[in-house]
Amino acid sequence: MKWVSPFVLNRLGLLNMNRRNVDYILRYNDRAAYPLVDNKLKTKLAAAEREVATPRLLQVVSQQHEISHFRELVDQLEGFAIKPSKGSGGKGIMVIIRRQGDDFIKGSGATVTLATLERHLSNILAGLYSLGGAPDVAIVEELVKTTLALERFSFRGVPDIRIVVFQGYPVMAMLRLATRASDGKANLHQGAVGVGLDIATGRCVNAVQFNRSIVLHPDTGLSLDDIEIAGWTQMLEMASRCYEATGLGYMGVDLVVDADQGPLLLELNARPGLSIQMANGCGLLPRLQKIEKLKRPHFTAEKRVDYAMAEFGR
User: Do 280 and 206 meet the contact criterion of CB atoms below 8 Å apart?
Assistant: First the structure.
């Protein structure tokens, strides 16, 4: 694993934000599909039609008076996740991993009360975390139980996998690992670790934190070179099927691996960030252009994944 400078990345086909916005998002993403991917509840329903599994839905809170039903629900739960349906960038997501008496323990280790959770639900409904500040709906999902193979690499947070999908082809992937700096969240801008993954194998090819190359996780001390994602082909096929589910030509597919249920879709992003290139130590542009030049596109997720693994593997 070695550090690659931004100058080298430019020569390797680094996709910049302007080109991403004009040549890929604007050109390949139908605006009519945005309400679907910008709404986690609608995403879950669309994914189910394509047999893409998501975390089990426990409750939908759409009105203030329904918060009282949440109070009844949590009496039966140890762990769960609260999410704004129209939130973006991880804002407004609260993950509870266990109970401690009448209190609730967040993924970061912080303690919150039931009153805090109810206030959080109220803020979600008021649109505090939604795109444009519009009134929103809160969804309560079953807690994802990460596999031990991945959990040990992350600091108090659920690791997730971002796969960039273009025209139904998975072109680049990374694993995001929570750190103390990121407050237990898998958010690279807040200090999470980004681990580039080989499309062909799901193995680590490079890793960064704050865009600087690292070899060991800053908190767990484990070697990131040892990472290899189990069930990798299945995850790529799930990501590929999201193309038919949404019609989006360019998107980010976020997945997690549950210890009991296997790979699950967390959410879709019609405007995926570009830090995945730093995590992989190579640019997206050559891979995107290769797909654009295909004279005969593949019409099934399985065929598209086979092509991507063969063409873009390390």
Answer: yes
What is the set of domains in the chain, with CATH numbers? 6-53+147-312 (3.30.470.20), 57-142 (3.30.1490)
Q: Is 127 left (phi over 0), alpha (psi -120 to 50) or beta?
A: left
The rounded distance, in Å, linking the Cα atoms of 221 and 202 is 21
Taking alpha carbons only, the member of 220, 206, 146 closest to residue 173 is 206
Burial (Cβ within 10 Å: 0-12, 13-18, ≥19) of residue 275: middle
Q: What is the pLDDT of residues 78-126, one digit of tens each?
A: 899 999 999 877 789 998 989 998 899 987 788 999 999 999 999 999 9
- Distance (Å, whole) CA 257 – CA 53: 11
Give me the residues paired with residue 196 across strands.
Answer: 174, 206
Q: How far apart are CA 267 and CA 202, in angstroms?
A: 20
* Region label for 142, one of left (φ > 0), alpha (ψ between -120 and 50) or beta (otherwise): beta
Cβ(139)–Cβ(60) under 8 Å?
Answer: yes
pTM recorded for the entire structure: 0.91
pLDDT digits (tens, 9 = 90+) for 23-52: 999 999 999 999 999 999 999 999 999 989
